[in-house]
């Protein structure tokens, strides 16, 4: 089923195209709107009054009028000069998400491009042609210029791309192999191809999708650790959570309570004569932290949904066919929530690492072997797994420094304030990956601690541990730990740990 390009585009549509190569289709209704705006732009091209991006230069050169015979050259020169990224190659899914979102705006009828451009861009996506783009080059203002310019350059048959199989080749060869013709650009089209916040928005949607799995995984690993430490479950009661009625906190507390229900390990903790009055913050306050992450995600998702129905270009073609300069390309709304999420991710990972450390410390683990070692002193157990967590958490704290609090002037001070939203998106992407690895280590550690107790866990957690034991060893003498950490990360990122728990319990 193709993804229909239009204002009803969803997060799931973006994921389907970016990660799973779902085909796209532009409706005839959308193409009619495209034709209407393109015809109007063609008329303005002959106007004696200069119009930005149509008969003038760009940015600081906006006051220069360009002769008719040089305007096609102008559009191609714009794309060539702006395809100036450098650094590590950006991931395929990010570029595909960006291209889909730019296609969505071009198909809105608010950019003035011709249907040939819209259909050519859609065909390039459907053919799996992905321009090779470096990580550095976008300031998140005037659009994600460099990344989008690489995509536009490929549309014109220039630049370097990867085909659907991942083979690197010149864009002209990839287009020819797919049966596509390069597009020759006309007035305003070069500008319309690059003037959007699509790169940062695509990465926001990808991150939110991954975090949907990770926040529930954090509730799961919390429940595993609480059982591993024979902790107190009363703190997760609904009436206590209702005293501070944040929606995310309620959802996380309900998840943890459901995952702890009827746990023999919890009952064992209650029966001890030296029962503690309360657990440490990293256990007791988990719903408050993970819940706050959920609420932050909800705000970020709201911003992303507004952006999905937006048509970002400068100048924009309005419904009454005015062509007006505007500032909608500024990435601040997206940049802020990207940074906000990076802060939340760092804090969630930090709490997970503290829970892991508690299971490894014989002074706080309630009778577990030091570092969960099989033979402490001879074996080191999971001592260094916690070091790995700690190194990631420290990196996440650095990544939590907001990119959007910075700005740097460009284009001879015409573009004197920029969002740096692309930079915020890149560091959030790295942070989300780090969070998954930290949660994987906590799950690995908690499973080992529960097994060492020799007392049964709750049914959903027992199912999770059973799944883990299919590819991860039971407690025993030290072995090569890196592959186990990698496997735990894979189980977390794939959602398989949560899926195992869901076999016996409903979660939010």
From TrEMBL:
InterPro entries: Aromatic_Lyase (IPR001106), Fumarase/histidase_N (IPR024083), HutH (IPR005921), L-Aspartase-like (IPR008948), Phe/His_NH3-lyase_AS (IPR022313). Its EC number is 4.3.1.3. SUPFAM superfamilies: L-aspartase-like. It catalyses: L-histidine = trans-urocanate + NH4(+). The keyword Plastid does not apply. It is an enzyme of class 4 (lyase). The keyword Amino-acid biosynthesis does not apply. Pathway: Amino-acid degradation; L-histidine degradation into L-glutamate; N-formimidoyl-L-glutamate from L-histidine: step 1/3. GO terms for molecular function: histidine ammonia-lyase activity. One of its GO terms (biological process) is L-histidine catabolic process to glutamate and formamide. Pfam families: Lyase_aromatic. Keywords: Histidine metabolism, Lyase. It is found in: Cytoplasm. Its main location: cytoplasm. GO terms for cellular component: cytoplasm. Belongs to the PAL/histidase family. NCBIfam families: hutH (TIGR01225), PRK09367.1 (NF006871). This is Histidine ammonia-lyase. It comes from Cutibacterium granulosum DSM 20700.
């Amino acid at each position: 089923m193709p993804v229909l390009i239009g204002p009803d585009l969803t997060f799931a549509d973006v994921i389907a195209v970016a990660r799973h190569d779902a085909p796209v289709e532009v409706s005839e209704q959308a193409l009619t709107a495209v034709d209407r705006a393109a015809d109007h732009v063609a008329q303005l091209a002959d106007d004696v009054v200069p119009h930005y991006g149509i008969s003038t230069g760009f940015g600081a050169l906006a006051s220069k009028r360009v002769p008719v015979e040089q305007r096609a050259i102008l559009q191609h020169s714009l794309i060539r000069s702006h395809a100036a990224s450098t650094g590590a190659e950006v991931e395929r899914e990010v570029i595909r998400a960006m291209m889909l979102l730019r296609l969505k705006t071009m198909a809105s009828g608010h950019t003035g491009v011709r249907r040939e451009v819209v259909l050519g861009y859609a065909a390039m996506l459907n053919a799996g042609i992905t321009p090779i783009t470096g990580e550095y080059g976008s300031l998140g203002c005037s659009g994600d210029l460099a990344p989008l310019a690489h995509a536009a350059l490929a549309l014109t048959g220039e630049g370097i791309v990867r085909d659907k199989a991942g083979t690197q080749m010149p864009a002209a060869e990839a287009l020819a192999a797919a049966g596509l013709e390069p597009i020759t650009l006309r007035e305003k089209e070069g500008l319309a191809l690059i003037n959007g916040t699509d790169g940062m928005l695509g990465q926001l949607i990808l991150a939110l999708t991954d975090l949907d799995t990770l926040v529930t995984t954090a509730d799961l690993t919390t429940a595993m650790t609480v059982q591993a430490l024979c902790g107190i479950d009363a703190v997760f009661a609904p009436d206590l959570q209702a005293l501070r009625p944040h929606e995310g906190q309620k959802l996380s507390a309900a998840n943890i309570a459901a995952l702890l229900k009827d746990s023999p390990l919890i009952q064992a903790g209650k029966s001890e004569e030296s029962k503690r009055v309360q657990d440490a913050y990293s256990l007791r306050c988990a719903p408050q932290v993970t819940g706050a992450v959920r609420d932050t995600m909800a705000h970020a998702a709201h911003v992303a949904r507004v952006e999905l129905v937006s048509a970002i270009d400068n100048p924009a073609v309005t419904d009454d066919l005015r062509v007006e300069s505007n500032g909608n390309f500024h990435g601040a709304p997206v940049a802020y929530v990207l940074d906000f999420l990076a802060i939340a991710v760092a804090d969630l990972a930090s709490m997970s690492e503290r829970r892991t450390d508690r299971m490894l410390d014989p002074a706080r683990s309630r009778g577990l072997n030091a570092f969960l070692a099989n033979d402490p002193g001879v074996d080191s157990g999971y001592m260094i797994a916690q070091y790995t967590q700690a190194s990631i958490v420290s990196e996440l704290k650095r990544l939590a420094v907001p990119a959007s609090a910075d700005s740097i002037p460009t284009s001879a001070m015409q573009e004197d304030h920029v969002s740096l939203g692309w930079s915020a998106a890149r560091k959030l992407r790295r942070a989300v990956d780090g969070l998954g690895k930290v949660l994987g280590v906590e799950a690995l550690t908690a499973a080992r601690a529960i097994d060492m107790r020799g007392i049964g866990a709750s049914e959903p957690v027992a199912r999770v541990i059973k799944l883990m034991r299919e590819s991860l060893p039971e407690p025993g003498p030290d072995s090569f730990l890196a592959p186990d950490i990698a496997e735990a990360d894979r189980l977390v990122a794939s959602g398989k740990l949560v899926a195992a728990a869901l076999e016996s319990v409903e979660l939010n």
